[in-house]
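Researcher: Batch entry, complex prediction.
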Amino acid sequence: MKVSVQKEDFDLSTEVRKISGDPRVGAVASFVGVVREVPMTLEHYAGMTEREIARIVEEARTRWNVMDATVIHRYGELAPTDQIVLVAVASAHRGDAFAACEFIMDYLKTRAPFWKKEHRPEGARWVEARASDDEAAGRWQDRSQKAG
Amino acid sequence: MKLKVLFFAGLREQLGSGGEEIELPAEVTTVAGLRAHLKSRGGAYEKAFADKAAVRIAVNQQMVPPSSGIKPGDEVAFFPPVTGG
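Model: Structure tokens for the complex:
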């Protein structure tokens, strides 16, 4: 498992290769978030961010077959088309890889202490949290209750 | 009791402070009590802590509800709802 909070960019294929070396791995699902339209500054709570993401990854491991996972989240100044976040999950089969990847991303958006400040022509403003993100994370709660 | 408070993002800008070491009166024993103590400073603090739902709290880097206890040496962080990813 790898969790990294960094200023530097990352390379998707390098990271995927790193977690697909085990011959039992049959599927790697990955998600890359990209800065859309507006330049931004990403602030985070150093220390807590890494621990919170690690907790989310651990929770995914209790729900699905996760053989390895990598989460990279950038902070600092980012411009449109820059990569912000990578979640990659290696599993034996695609179902677990897809689900765990989406679960980690949904929880990351509502629990990892990052804050985006957009730099628009009319001035800088902090992005407000969206109810739809809470709903996206909440649906995993519903699923586990149904399954349980 | 003495502990460390931290402020992030919009809250940090609103208060003009990233945090401080703070000496608390004996009756402050919970996160909610600490929040009320900060709010009682008035001015920007009064305004920033007026809307309880707008401020999230972590003690020693773990999110907690306002009823959580605090102890000397804790790191208590206040911040707006997160917007990463």
